[in-house]
Amino acid sequence: MALAVEPMLTAGDPETRELEDGWTVVTADGSRAVHWEHSVAITEDGPRVLTLPLD
Prior knowledge:
The chain is mainly beta. It has strands at residues 2-5, 8-10, 16-18, 25-27, 33-35, 38-43, 46-49.
């Protein structure tokens, strides 16, 4: 199984709205926000974070 964990942090009100393109999400009050994603695979050996940077 694979999961996408997608937190979004906002500097203002937590309310959001989706734009007409059906994809873009913005804060309702116009405050700054940041969003990122990590993909995690659940394997027989336990979870593996697929989006960790390579060292």
